[in-house]
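Predicting structure from sequence has reshaped protein science. With that in mind, we have picked out one protein's residues alongside their backbone shape tokens:
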Amino acid sequence: MTERVARLAAWLADARAAVVFTGAGVSTESGIPDFRSPGGVWDRFDASAMTWPNFIGSVEGRRRYWELGHVTYPVIRAARPNAAHRAVAELHRLGRLHACITQNIDDLHQRAGLPPERVIELHGNAARTRCLGCGAGFTRDEVHAWLDAGAGVPACPGCGGIVKPHTVLFGEAMPPLAMARAERAAREADLLVVVGSSLVVYPAAYIPRHAREAGARLAIVNLTPTPLDGCADLGKAGFTSKPAQTAYGATEPVCAFLLASGVFPSRAEVPAARFVTPVVEVEGALPVLELIDLRYTGKPAASDLIADGVAANAIVLGAPLTDVRGLDLALEGPVYEHNGTVAATNTAAEVLGSPLNALAWIANHLGARGLGLRAGDVVMS
């Protein structure tokens, strides 16, 4: 560990355009809980209050958002920068920092002394709000004063329009200007350091890859493995969640055909007698339920899973089928609901990258054997 710290310090000393990419792990020591870990925000609150469709779709959805925000924002407001935020600001003072790209919405990098123009906020800033009608801006403190005065759902005092937090809600498009700035900064970097991010939230997690592809050194400092650990010049050792073909040195995809008897239409009743120990998965790019069957009495190892120890037994196809030519498949994803409550959300990229990568791999594999994919075929990946 000491050797790795020394190596990173040397790289920072040599850097002329270092970029720091920060996630929720940077701010946990400031008292801001992360979202995804056990005990995080989504273990304690209903995530559906943070979805864009619910917020924009009804007054009740906005009321639920602001009710939750009235509890969570004071925690962010009371937080103070910690040593990690101050270290990034010090890099700027030393002339080494090209940009700080952050997934956080807490404003702590700026409060640590980093000039706002050096901070690229991919998911927005919780301290600000704006009217979706006239574009007027308000501080979060102003909006909370309205809430304290009895406004259940804040409205713009100028035009009566919807007041929205300056943050990216689940299901909302990423801010194009911030994404463009982040991609440009990453490609201009000679060193990119990831700190406190699991790199599973896309498209933000693509940013470090852009830097690596452009020739920058990549260092990852995180408590848990990330999908890019195998690409990093410096990072935490151990098992990572890279695609299985890389992690296991596989040269062929693990694939098989599913019998027609295992394909069910939307809303069909699937007989339980088909399964031993069934598990249901929701596929992230198109509306499909995959029903897998565990064929082991004990807990399978990772190698068992790769060797098809857990196999698709049936699928339920959603309807109607969607023409994907106008979609960015990597960004498509479901919202998981249980009894009307949002349990989780994700995108296809969080699991797979673009599904087209796996599709091309399978097509090439089958083509080399005189088989192939035909129009109308369904591929589960």
Q: What stands out?
A: The two ends are 37 Å apart (CA to CA). Residues 59-78 form the longest helix (20 residues).
